[in-house]
Amino acid sequence: MIINGMVIGIVIWLVGVSVKDFACLLVGQYEFINVEKQDFFNSTMHYYLLRASLIAILVAAFIYYFLIRRILVPLQKLMKSTRLMTEGEYPDPIRVNSDDETGQLSRHFNQMVVTLRQTEESRKQMLSDISHELRTPLSNLNGYLEALSLGVIQGDSKLYHSLYEESMHLTYLVEQLHQLAVWETKRLNKKILQHMEMKKVIQASIQSFELELKNKSIQCEFHLESATVQGDEVGIRQVMTNLLKNAIQYDYGGFIRISGTSLMNEYRVAVTNVGRSIPTEQAEQIFERFHRIDPSRSRDTGGSGLGLAIAKEIVQQHGGDIGLTSIDNEHSFWFTIPMAKIKKIKEGTGK
Prior knowledge:
Elements: H1 2-28, H2 35-86, H3 101-150, H4 157-188, E1 194-197, H5 198-207, H6 210-215, E2 219-224, E3 228-231, H7 233-249, E4 255-262, E5 266-274, H8 307-317, E6 322-327, E7 330-338, E8 349-350
Parallel strand pairs: 2-4
Antiparallel strand pairs: 1-3, 2-8, 4-5, 5-7, 6-7
C-alpha cells in the first residue's frame, strides 16, 4: 500500500513538473515579457505546482485508502477464516456488504464452509449409524459363539439358522455400503452412458421378483410406455430393484402398481402400493442414508436403510429426480430420467 502511494505521488509530481516547464517555455518565447516578469511567473507556477501536487496527492491518497480498505478488509477476514479452517475449526459466516468480486468470493466461501460442515456432520452420522448397525449382529454372533465354545449351550438347527441370519445381515449391509461407495466414486469420474429401452429394463427388473411376489401373494400390475433414454442400465436396474424390494417388504395391501410414462423431456417411473404410515416431514429424509421411520431401528420393521439412498445417488447421477408421493397409506415412490430426443411409442398394459 505504501509503495502504491509513492508511485501515485511520483506520477502526480512528474505530470505537474512537465506542465510547469512547458508553460514556462511558452512564456519565455515571447519577447514582450521581461526577465523580471518571467522570474515572477516561474516562481508563481512553482508555488501553484507544489500546492496542486500536494492537494492532488492528499485527495488521491484519501480515495485510494477507502478503495483499498474496501478490498483489503474482506480479504483479511477471508484469511482469518481460512486460517481457522486449517486449524480444524469452522469460522462464522463472513458478513457481505457488496456485490462486487470480493463480495461474491465471500459468499462462495461462506457456502463452502456450510457444505464442508454438513459433509463433516454427515460423515460423523454415517459412522455412528454404521457402528449401530454392526454392533447388534456382531454382539449376537460373539455371544452365541462364545457360549458354544465354552459348552454353555448346545448347538441345534434353530440356533445355527439364527447365526446364519445374523451373518447374512452383515453381508447384506457390507454389500450395500460397497454399492453406495461405488456409485459415489462414479460421480467423480466421467460416466459412459448408453441408449437403452426403459420398458425392457423395467420388465426385466419385475421378472426377477416374480417368485417372491408369488410366495407373498402380492399382485403386480404394470403399465409401461416405450422410450429410449441415455443412461447406465445396471444402475437403472439397481434403482428398480431397490424400490421393488422396499415395496414388497412394507406391503400391506397385497398389490403393487408400476407405471412408466413418457413425458416431454423425461421418463417417469412410479412404484405404488399400500404400506405403513409415513409422516409428511419424513418424505424427503427417507432417501437419506440409514434413515428409518421406526425410531427403534428394529430389523423386523426396517432394512439396512441404504437401499433408497443408493437409488437416489444413481438417479441424481443420471440428471433425474426421485421422490415420494403419499395419499393416506398409499405410497408412490417415483423417479425420472432425462429422455433422448426420439419419437415416443406408447405400448399397452401388461400384468
